[in-house]
Amino acid sequence: MGMQLAVHMVTIEELVPREHYLRRLEGVLDLSFVYEETSHLYSRRYGRPPIDPVVLVKYLLVGFLYGIPSERQIEQRVQTDVALRWYLGLDLFDRVPDHSTISQLRRRKPAFRKVFRRLFEEVVGQCIANGLASGRLVGTDSTHVKANASRASEEQVELTEEPGVYWERLDAYEEEGLAELERKTGRRRKSRTKQVKKDRRQTKKRVSRTDPEAGHMKRPGKPRGQYYLSHQTVDTDHGVILDVRVTPGDVYDSVPYLEQLEHVHRAVLPIQAAAADAAYDFPLAHRVLDDLGIRFFVRPQTAHDRTSVELKREAFRYEESLDAYVCPNDKLLKLNTLHRSASGLYRLYLADKRDCQSCPFRSQCLRPEDRRGARKLEHSYFMPQRRKNLERRTQPEYREALRLRQIWCEGSFAIQKRCHNLTRLLRRGREAAEDHCLLSAAALNLKRLIRNAD
Q1: What is the predicted pLDDT for the residue at 388?
Q2: C-alpha–C-alpha distance, residues 216 and 208, integer Å
Q3: Which residues contact 347 (CB under 8 A, 6 or more apart)?
Q4: Burial class of residue 172, CB neighbours in 10 A (0-12, 13-18, 19+)
Q5: What is the pLDDT of residues 391-422, one digit of tens each?
Q6: What 3-state DSSP class applies to 396?
Q7: Predicted pLDDT of residue 296
Q8: Three-state DSSP class for 45?
Q9: Which residues pair with 376 in a beta bridge?
């Protein structure tokens, strides 16, 4: 019996169900801005007709929406998936763009990558317009993304001397602090003329020859090796990711934090309150967020008193009205000067030498080799704001803010790792890592936008 062939008259439009996710995506996401962003990259007069840049952006976006890890696999999926063909504007027998087109585009036209930041921003704008983000409370955290580089490619490299990340901010607060010191003590310390020496506990770092822009991550409870960090600030109303920054894996979470929050506050959405875990509890953050009028809910960092004497800092009581510390022998340690390091600004309090000489606690308070012969204590110049924030940490509102941060930040990372390619990178370099993390965040935001648009 011969094989029978049935002939069907069918269009691709009929094959894609009315309620399909990609139909809803097409209705929500207007990609016309891609033409405006890329027009300068294409010649109208020369060369072969290019592949539509919108098709290329959709091609990559579906890879992140469906968790397809490589461009080669996206090409294979589009060939057989009718809905993906429909979304890319291809008919049943149209040729699918070759995966190498994308890599050639990235290689020959690096400016094309601006499209990914703009795509992310457009999606965030739509989420805000649809009432999915309010800025009432944002949470910030980072997650590690495996770089395309092995530990075998690492070599030790000398670290270069460079100013701290908050250098200019600390300069401005130092001037304010010196004026305050003059009011309180009548003495004006000379302004610094020499640059502060960087705190150099580490003089070498491990750099990969394969991807020198990645960083060697070595954190407790985390895998060791070459990684990038994706730092995300998330609105806790519906989990919309408002901003993404990418750094090497050996950068502290606190480094991009203030710049990221100020960008969101001024350019994306005014922030009323911010929540973060203990990695973000550094004194300058308390002061800067206070100046911006943002309430700060942060898990306190555990303090380590490394002094080798018996009487630790807890034995001294700080009297705010006197701006002085009272020692166990009821003598005062008065404000002496403002001390600046590469990472912070500190007020130095000194006891009177005569008080220390006749003190019964001298042997428990001072080391025998202490040449100055008087106890000193210092605290951060930004301590008042930190203390004000941390005094609220037992309040229900404070605990709830930390809970929401954990749910939305860590929950978003978990979904992105499982479904949206945030586990590892195929391409190398910090810019490629940022494109990758932006597309992953845009994919999650689109899912949340479509779900809440119904």
Answers
A1: 92
A2: 8
A3: 177, 335, 337, 338, 339, 378, 379, 380, 381, 383
A4: exposed
A5: 999 999 999 999 999 999 999 999 999 999 99
A6: helix
A7: 96
A8: coil
A9: 350
DSSP H or E segment with residue 334 = strand 332-340
Q: State the Cα–Cα distance between residues 188 and 178, nearest whole angstrom.
A: 7
Q: What is the 3-state secondary structure (H, E, C) of 269-318?
A: CCCCEEEECHHHCCHHHHHHHHHCCCEEEECCCCCCCCCCCCCCHHHCEE
Question: What is the per-residue pLDDT for 47?
Answer: 46
Q: Dihedral of CA 50/430/263/278: which sign?
A: positive
pLDDT value of residue 10: 64
Which pTM does this prediction carry? 0.88
Dihedral (CA of 331, 337, 340, 344) sign: positive
Rounded-to-integer distance, Cα 413 and Cα 422, Å: 8
For residue 241, the surrounding DSSP H or E stretch is: strand 240-248
Residue with tokens 């001024």: 266
C-alpha neighbours within 13 Å on the C-beta side of residue 389: 29
State the residue for tokens 């020198």: 212
Instruction: State the 10-residue block means of pLDDT for the chain, 454 residues long.
Output: 63 72 86 76 56 83 92 89 86 77 73 84 94 95 91 74 74 85 72 59 75 84 88 96 94 92 95 95 94 95 77 84 86 85 85 84 80 83 92 94 96 95 90 93 95 76
Structural domains for the chain = 12-108 (no CATH), 125-159+202-300+393-453 (3.30.420.10)
Place of tokens 């586990």: 423
Residue 433 CA to its chain's centroid (Å): 13
Q: Which pLDDT score is estimated for 175?
A: 85
